Amino acid sequence: MAAIAEGFKEQVALLGKDSSLVAIIARPTAPQGSDRPAIVILNTGIIHRVGHHRMYVTLSRVLAGAGHTVVRFDFSGIGDSAPAKDLMPPLAASLEQIREVIDSLALTYHISRFVLVGLCSGADHSILYARNDARVVGLVLMDPTLPPTPRYYFHYVLQRLPHVRNWMSVATGRSGLMRLLATRMSWRLRNGGNRPEELTLQSLPFSPQLAQCYRAVARRKVNMLAVFTCVSARHTYPQQMVDAFPETSTGGGLRLEYFPESNHHFTPPQARARLLRVIADWVESV
Q: What is the DSSP string of the chain?
């Protein structure tokens, strides 16, 4: 079933090896050049493919109207997609499903280049997957996980210093910073042996694999748009990504955008409108 709007059409599709991943594919109605990359939008946590306040619906239609094939799909067990039948770990299963979706699009529409888009965990899935698939030529990472840097801790304390509530949190042992430090120490102790724990999204900030992924995509000159909001425990200052992963700043492949007026879900109308403009302009540059 397809719905046609001005400049693009949308249709429901079942993707993946078992045809169990429910997706909405938006495509331009007018023929486009084959060199345009397709856009794959990933789930944020357990939020299904429409995104927060239908953010991904609007984004996919804007990009499809500009001439791109855009797919937004649900990982297994999220939204309308059936639970996975195998026993793969959740992170490995999600990365495999991204590959299945890209394979399906490449086979059906003869597309050879792809851009992954994700917010929060979706951004993390994007960077982890892009490391091993040369077909990914672009990444839109909104509030991705970053490892804490020395400046992160400095800004974290500085931002919370004037607030009495934060001092009370420290005194009662409920401080987010103290929990972060305890988690980091615990992870290092557990992974000090010969058999490190399996990578998860929870352990990602402390894993050397995250730096390896950024280093790999930077070496391959993958274009990256990194968007950060003011309300996120994942970062405390705009340049944290460059400080954590210096390789991303070489070659001109990274564009940083900071939204101090926005929350994590880009719900303020002005922030949402600006986000759509930034992503659309950046995709055209890719």
A: -EEEETTEEEEEEEETTTT-EEEEEEEESS---TTSPEEEEPPBTTB-TT-GGGHHHHHHHHHHHTT--EEEEPPTTSTTSPPPSS---HHHHHHHHHHHHHHHHHHHH----EEEEEETHHHHHHHHHHTT-TTEEEEEEES---PPPHHHHHHHHHHHTT-HHHHHHHHTT--HHHHHHHHHHHHHHHTSSSSPPPP-TTTGGG-HHHHHHHHHHHHTT-EEEEEEESS-TT-SSTTHHHHH-GGGGSTT-EEEEEETT--TT--SHHHHHHHHHHHHHHHHH-
For the cut 50, the answer to whether the pLDDT of residue 167 exceeds it is no
Q: What is the model's pTM? A: 0.87
Q: What are phi and psi of 21, to 5 degrees?
A: -100, 115
- Per-residue confidence band for 182, with pLDDT thresholds at 50, 70 and 90: low
Confidence of residue 189 (pLDDT cuts 50, 70, 90): low
Contact indicator for 98, 9 with CB cutoff of 8 Å: no
98 forms bridges with which residues in the sheet?
Answer: none
